[in-house]
Amino acid sequence: MIERTTLEPPPTDEQEHWHGRAVAEVVACLHTDPRRGLTVEEAARRLAQHGPNRLPSPARRSAWVRFLLQFHNVLIYMMLASAVVAGLLSHWIDAAVLFAAVAVNAVIGFLQEGKAEEALDAIRNLLSLRTTAIRQGERIQIAAKDLVQGDLVTLASGDKIPADLRVVSAKSLFVNEAILTGESAVVEKSPAAVPIEAPLGDRRCLLYSGTLVSSGQGTGIVVATASRTELGRISVMLEDVQEMTTPLVRQMAAFSRWLAAAIGLIAVSTFFTGVLWRGHSADDMFMMVVALAASSIPEGLPAIMTITLALGVRRMATRNAIVRRLPAVETLGSVTVICSDKTGTLTKNEMTVQSILTGKLTFDVSGAGYVPEGGLHLDGAVVSPGAHPEIAELARAGVLCNDASLRHVNGTWQVEGDPTEGALCTLAVKVGLDLLGERENRPRVDAIPFESEHRFMATLNHDHEGNRFIYLKGAPERLFGMCTTYRAGSLEIPMDRALWDERVQATAGRGMRTLAIALKRVSATQLDLRFEDVDGGCTLLGLLGIIDPPREEATAAVADCASAGIRVKMITGDHAETARAIGARLGIGQDKPAMTGSQIEQLDDEQLRLAVSDLDVFARTSPAHKLRLVGALQASGQIVAMTGDGVNDAPALKRADVGVAMGLKGTDAAKEVADVVLADDNFATISGAVREGRGIYDSIRKFILFMLPTNGGEALVVTAAILFEWTLPLTAAQVLWINMVTSSTLGLALAFEPPESDVMERPPRDPQAPLLSWFFVWRLAMVSALMMTGALGLFLWELDRGAGIERARTIAVSAVVMAEMWYLLNSRYILRPVFSREGLFGNSYVWMVIGACALLQLAYVHTAPLQAVFHSTDLSLAEWVRVLVVGLFVFTIAETEKAIIRRVSRQQAPPQAARSGTASFPSQREHHR
Ligand code: ATP
């Protein structure tokens, strides 16, 4: 290859026609090795020379545009129009304050949006693609962005192709290229070169970045990276861009538009009534109407809802639940059923072979984990593996039909690859085999990889004496059907299915995974391995019992879900008995049998619907069964979260209300369609995510309940004054001051509200329940009325006692702000009392914002510049005490109202009705809050 300068990009397919060249030619051109890949140094050099394998980020809206967009909102237009008219009428201060209020709102919105975007960017980075490359002959996991031209990459079903690759080897390698070609049918790939003029869709020997392996295995050499790939050239972005919205946020946005229209209408009619009917001057009336509009517009609402969501989503990410689609946050709160995989999610996925069943005997294996220390025991006595050659033969088969490796790194034994296969490597060392030696003595010629659909793996190997063997391992029922004999010592006995089924049943009943191992001799001329080759004529070497202990935290999480009214169902590919035994340990489906995939197939949809509401453990299922199970659960009105990892789980994940993919063992295909990705594959993380989801939804509701009465209270004060022809207790500028200090400081604290301690003791939220329930409307009206009574009452009282208008207004403004500060404490819980350590001090932001708000209000009352702008006056201590009394008045009545609702709902609903979610009184679901 010609040396290229640093600036010169590597060639693309269009220039080099990689698809028209033989593999050897591509290898030579790219100075690589089709078996060992690049050296680490060469890869680093190429990375430095050509840059990372990453598409340029989509052009972001510039900061200026983002700032200007903050003004693009009908509520803001109304405020700006009022400001202009106020200016034209020479009300300079009002005009300036209106402009300032709009500007403050825009700055807050701008900063919050920035934070929200940062939070979502961080999440996107967590999901960045990883891939398996071969460098210096070693398989290593690297970030896809570190791939360089010439790298050798291995692929398996479910992988997303990380760069453009020239196929080197392929085994039933089918790829979905819909993202590039729009064609949803999968395409088979193979190493043979194609004519240079072949169109993109027919270049069978090229794999395109961003497409998905739907089945099979293969290896390929990277021929193009980053924007030189086909995908890069048509500039399709790989990352999903998260929309910063959810149904609730949209509902609120629609609500504020509706509100704006209503406010506009009321303002206009008030103006004309005042001018034409009551004979006020247009100038005076205009300023009243502006005060009315300014007081009722909740301009800060959408921005704070977004930040609450983004903060919540970031908090979830730090707890390993990565939300890919924001609406899932809300759905999580309504989930009634979680369908979970077993292996790795409910269990640790740390496999250890504990039992070996050969034709004649049952051995126990000592030792735990992957440490190859321990030995064989027979009826409690130690036995030497040498005395039982059938053990070595079985262990050898387990190592050859195996893609995992066992390594001693930094003092610990680690498995690279599938844990089930890792356990077989450990077993082989325990019985005295040398892993590398065995693999060199009998190299692999071909293989049928493990897929959960067919539940076995087979390899074709040869020794150096001209013999060829097929080694098989897999689910016992699957392998038994292929075996005509079984090995007993040196004898081969005709297969006795009943005997072996019984042995499987007994092993699985102890909660162990069962794996059968078999062998078939084939002719020395056989070059490849197909399904027909293993259809019969195999010899069963034995059965392994593998333990995979349940995760300790999963038991607690299952119990948590039960108290939260969420049923946990285990859907696994494992044996029914193993699943039932593990389920019983975790508290899932106790005392009930497990239903198997074949039983599911015999049921029609209606029968399945009935069965799923009764049973909790489903075993030997395939992805197609998962899809039917989700459908059946949804048909009976459940809101389903479903976990999955394989490429074929994608339809079930898509269909579920919340699709949850595994971050560690999950395929890219599953992650791509999931709503949530679990970084640690742990079931406890799902229940944690439900807790957070419920908490976030609560925070938003609390925020709305906090925010709207502020506007409601102010609007009532102004309306009452207009109606009764009193002097306005609050001028437009003063109303805006209140909105600024309360929404920019106080409200923000609720975005940091942690989920309440009893959030998992309530039934799931009814997704149909409207946001503005009667309870919400009542609470809104009540608090608005309280604020009005307090502020207006004090204002009129002060006027009555002879206070000047400016003093009385200063008191009224301070009273509203004080009431807001106290009401913030009420708002921490929707129905629970706040008189507790947790209630008063559980969120330190609450006290920080109350402090900030108090300082601002002190400045408003006691500093000359603000006095000049807002016509405020200094207040005496006695006046401050009266202001404080108004705050306490609102606080006390709001707490009393909660207590009354709690009592009424307790009397109306027995607790179990509330638990099961069948309660009818609307506020029952609010009961615990
Ligand atoms: P879950 O769906 O809970 O993750 P699982 O991992 O136990 O379940 P599968 O991976 O589909 O389910 O495995 C099903 C069965 O296939 C196992 O019980 C085992 O007998 C067999 N099996 C698992 N892994 C392998 C493998 N690497 N090679 C051959 N057979 C395997």
From TrEMBL:
It is a multi-pass membrane protein. SUPFAM superfamilies: Calcium ATPase, transduction domain A (SSF81653), Calcium ATPase, transmembrane domain M (SSF81665), HAD-like (SSF56784), Metal cation-transporting ATPase, ATP-binding domain N (SSF81660). The chain crosses the membrane at residues 63-86, 92-111, 258-279, 285-311, 703-724, 730-752, 772-796, 808-825, 845-863, 875-894. Residues 17-91 form the Cation-transporting P-type ATPase N-terminal domain. Gene3D superfamilies: Calcium-transporting ATPase, cytoplasmic domain N, Calcium-transporting ATPase, cytoplasmic transduction domain A, Calcium-transporting ATPase, transmembrane domain, HAD superfamily/HAD-like. Keywords: ATP-binding, Membrane, Nucleotide-binding, Translocase, Transmembrane, Transmembrane helix. PROSITE patterns: ATPASE_E1_E2 (PS00154). Residues 910-929 are annotated as: Disordered. Its main location: membrane. It comes from the Bacteria. PANTHER family: P-TYPE ATPASE, SODIUM/POTASSIUM-TRANSPORTING ATPASE SUBUNIT ALPHA. This is Cation-transporting ATPase F.
